[in-house]
TrEMBL record:
This is GTPase Era. The gene is era. One of its GO terms (molecular function) is ribosomal small subunit binding. The keyword Membrane applies. Transmembrane segments: none annotated. One of its GO terms (cellular component) is plasma membrane.
């Protein structure tokens, strides 16, 4: 195959800047979950963009931050490991917040990947005036010599094709790395667990979002061959948090279950029935053994 490029790009940046939203928008399918809470993404999630002239494997990573728990450290480790193995790094800063110490800290970490090409992506571009956007681009430009700088909006589909083109041009000549119909490496089980966590994140505040983990206990296919029963655990750190997740008369848990079932139904052809239990694993974010059990 001539003139075909393929390779890896990772989106890095502070929590909540829109890395996962951008990943989903470019891939054209919900690969990674989204929320307005920081630290929504907890693993390196791969999404694959297919074009006639190439293939981009996007590795969406957890937001980089000053860690306060062992979980926080593990999430930063995921980002460092990813930086070492990609062709292109897309450093994301949001248009609606000034470039600050958190961004400068992450920018310094990019030195770990001397060979990777580096572009700056100014996200959420539709939220600010032209003047503010221009000022932000200048600030970002001051951080280092970028291979490119591009403002985008995943919410309003602004410059997404441009970004795809820029990334593709920086990738090596290569045969396709994935089959042409594959959009992610995530398994059904992993995606289902994440969609339950996304539903559970809605409407909770403060420390609780960080305390929520989700595990899949069992998936049972019914005799009809098309219906799958998912038995899922929402794990929190304290009894009080368990009460909040369940809600008065089980009202919140019912809403979580319904939303999760709706979302999971969209990623599979068959019918899905979700059952959720809420469990407490004391201080799991700080406990190496429990972290291991939860997959971190
Ligand atoms: N207005 C606007 N909001 C956006 C855009 N992209 C993302 N958001 C919002 O920003 C918030 C964070 O989005 P995520 O994609 O979860 O951010 P992230 O960088 O992946 O966050 P972590 O995984 O926690 O590091 C969500 O509320 C999104 O809806 C955008 O282009 N415009
Ligand atoms: Mg994310």
């Amino acid at each position: 195959m001539t003139n075909y490029r393929a390779g890896f790009v990772t989106f890095v940046g502070r929590p909540n800047v829109g890395k996962s939203t951008l990943t989903n928008a470019l891939v054209g399918e919900k690969i990674a979950i989204i929320s307005d809470k920081p630290q929504t993404t907890r693993r390196a999630v791969r999404g694959i963009v297919h074009r006639e002239d190439g293939q981009i494997i996007i590795v969406d990573t957890p937001g980089m931050h000053r860690p306060r728990t062992l979980l926080g450290e593990r999430l930063n480790d995921v980002v460092h490991a990813t930086l070492a193995e990609v062709d292109v790094i897309g450093f994301c800063v949001p248009a609606n917040e000034p470039v600050g110490p958190g961004d400068r800290f992450i920018n310094e970490q990019l030195e770990e990947a001397p060979k990777a090409r580096k572009i700056a992506i100014v996200t959420k571009a539709e939220t600010v005036s032209r003047d503010v956007l221009a000022a932000r681009l200048v600030d970002v430009q001051g951080l280092r010599e970028w291979d490119d700088i591009v403002p985008v909006s995943a919410a309003e589909d602004i410059q997404l094709d441009t970004l795809t083109g820029i990334i593709l041009a920086l990738l090596p000549d290569s045969e396709p790395l994935y089959p042409s119909d594959m959009k992610t490496e995530e398994s059904f089980e992993q995606r289902a667990a994440e969609l339950v966590r996304e539903a559970a994140l809605e409407g909770v505040h403060d420390e609780l979002p960080h305390s929520i983990a989700v595990t899949v206990e069992e998936i049972v296919t019914r005799d009809d061959g098309v219906t799958r029963e998912l038995y899922v655990n929402i794990v929190v750190e304290r009894d009080s948090q368990k009460g909040i997740i369940i809600g008065r008369g089980g009202e919140r848990l019912k809403r979580i279950r319904e939303q999760a079932q709706r979302e999971i139904s969209q990623i599979t052809e068959g019918r899905v029935i979700v059952s959720i239990r809420v469990k407490v694993a004391k201080e799991w974010q700080r406990d190496p053994k429990q972290l291991g059990r939860l997959g971190f």
